Amino acid sequence: MTAAVDPRLEQLLLDHADEMLLLVAPDTLEIRAANRIARDRLGYPSGGLVGKKITEIESALADVFFWQDVSQGAAGDIDESESLYRRSDGGLLAVARTVRRISADGRDWLILRVRDIRREKEVAADLAQLASQLQATLEATVDGILVVAPDNRIVNMNRRFAEMWGLPENLRFRGDDSQVYDFLAGKLRDPTGYGSRMEDIGSHPDADSFDMLELSDGRVFERKSRPQYLHDQIVGRVFSFHDITERVAGERALIQARDHAEMANRAKSEFLAMMSHEIRTPMNGILGMSELLLDTPLNAEQREFTGVLKSSAEALLSIINDILDYSKIEARKLAVDRADFNLHALLEDFADLYGIRAAEKHLELTWQMDPEVPALLRGDPGRLRQILVNLVGNAIKFTERGGIDLHVELIDAWDGEVQLRFVVVDSGIGIPEGALERIFDPFEQADGTTTRRYGGTGLGLAISRSLTELMGGQIGASSVEGNGAKFWFTATLERQPPSARELPLPGEERLARLAGTRILVVDDRQANRDMLERQLAAWGFRPAVAADAETGFAMLKQAAADGEPYRVALIDKLMPGVDGETLGKWVRATPELIGTALVLATSAGERGEAHRLAEGGFGAYLPKPVKRSLLLDCLLTVLDQDPQERHADHAIITQHSLADARRGNTHLLLVEDNPVNSQVALAMLGQLGYTRVDVAENGRQALDAVGRLVYDLILMDCQMPVMDGYEATRAMRQAGCTTPIVALTANAMVGDREKCLAAGMDDYIAKPVKARTLADTLEHWLGSGAKPDDELPLDVPAAAADEAFDRVMLLENLGGDEALVAEILRIYVATAPGYMASLRAAIAAADAPAARSAAHSLKGASANAGARLLSATAKQAELAAGGGDLAAAAALLPAVEEHWRAFLRAADLPGA
Prior knowledge:
This protein is 46% helix and 20% strand. Strands 11, 12, 13, 14, 15, 16 and 17 form a 7-stranded mixed sheet that branches. It has a 6-stranded parallel sheet with strand order 19-18-20-21-22-23, with helices on both faces. By secondary structure, it is an alpha/beta fold. Strand 16 (475-479) and strand 17 (485-495) form a beta hairpin. The protein starts with 6 loop residues before the first helix and ends in a 6-residue tail after the last helix. The chain is built from 31 helices and 28 strands. It is elongated.
């Protein structure tokens, strides 16, 4: 038998329920029982609710009608509904109640379960407000917003989205998402791409997305999306759409404008390049012929006219160069190279050239490089030289008397790099203070008037500033009007690796036996004295200096009296007061100084001067600034002479006699398989004074020759049978050969120079070889000079259509020797048919390498024989065969035959 439940426990259970519980009699509507929570929430004491009618608590009008129905017998069951309960203090409490009729002890009761919903009402109100704010935000944004669930069901969209896509109202509120998506896809230029992109986005639910949609009406939308999170769970994705039609149109217009600008720039560059070529070609002829003309007997008027012609041509050429460089600056295409160079040699060569220009105005150019400045550097020597040309050229232009000093000093050094400072000081007209601020601007000059005395474009200093900045430096100037100017610039350059060594000067090995020899330098310019004293000391001599002729003469006599005479006196010609020639006469008239050799250095030479100086007792005559190689050659020569015989009808030593002697003693190796090319090269070398030349027909023979003899320089063809020039050079370098090797090759495309240098060659000359180019290159490597432009030819001029035979070029290259021209043509006519036959046979056998080799040989021989048209056609065949296109090479065979016959006709040779 089940024990009865203690009423107290039942009441305890009811009092701890979470809801208000009321028991109501349906007939009287009186409350017969209430739990503690009901009493507390409604503010009644214990038992305070019992006996009250429920209509006193439920005060809403609807509730009054409800309870009236119940009292009249209605069932009264209610699922949860909202109501208002009146508290004991008169306040109202929002509740949700459920009413159930039950039967117990033979009668009916109504049980009310009542829940306080004030907090729910507050939360709902807050949520409603938040939703309203969010919707207002969505509607206020300029972007279209679309919110989708993970299953791509559309959750929300703003009005802007519907407006952007033109979404009809019936689709927007119908709730059929598939029709909405179909409508959107139909608006696109590529509907299929839209679907695949949505699949791609869906396959990466946790990633942001970005893409552009092109509509069929021409509009462009930018679409972004990111996942929507709720407690680290992805509950959807929010897409934003932004109309970027105007922006895209603007970008396309900018791109089109850029393309047009680039086309215009290309057209301008091509035009400038063409005009440069077209102007330079006749300009070089004018300059060359005017120089030749000045070396012929002319009367004073003719010499003046020719000098004006030459200087005008040089000025025009300088303007062309400035305009081309400035166009590169505008196009941001001005660049600096990175190559190894010898700064000392560069400055010597530069001073050699500009010393002559200064001397033409009776000015003296001096230069010095501080001992701590490294000579072996890596950078762009051509651009460095260009800045010096602008600064020193301006100094010469604006200086009428006095001189120009160039000084190079070390500012700083770190981690394989150095910062150098170049200073150019002149004694010219100076620059007004107000003009200093603008002289580095394009097209600006210190004198901007239409009546200015000095010409120019006003671009040189602007270009120099750009070049200096490209080399990590700065440029500046200071001046006092009427009292000269000082220009300076800095540049950051790399040191060459420690393994790099400066090439020794010819004759340096003979200096040991002359150590301690006393030499006196007499020069009024401090810079000259410092530079010469430093160089002579570095060679082991014991130099001393004097600033004027009187002091120098006294020092010479005192040294002789002390029993330690000066063996050589190096005397400047132009000094204030007593000049160098007069000092020389004093020395020659003094018996105790008979053993002192006299060397005169001058920056202003005259015709017939060497003969007069020889008669005056001078043993040598050198131009200023004196190059190291020339000075060393001169000193070694005069010191080898017997003092008693020095004045006995000896020819005076000049730079030309020293160069001729050096060339005659130079031993060269020419490696060339083509007999025509070989004969032409030998003839050119002979005319330049190089008479000791051995010939090897391929790289293997060259290796054998280098193993037997030591050569001063090797001229190496690149493409030869048995062993080509590249392989031979690599083998020589691996064997320890350090002799300078200069490539002679008909391959003159961009990249061929780098290929030669990578193989171990030191320099590169393109065929057909020009006598001037060959002379400059040999002088560079054998005389420790620097080539005029520090550049190597990288292209061969294309032959004109009517140039079947260029006799003028052939005759010029062979020094006007008609007999040698006839011999070259005889060899060429005997060998060229063989090359053509080999070319035909190789094409017939489908042997591309053999065809390329035959065409290459025909090209080189034809170029050196003056058959420029045939050479150009052979070059096309070589390129075609090299690219494996034998059909194109075969198509050129008729042209080869025709150009061969045209050559024979033009040269008036049998077989035409």
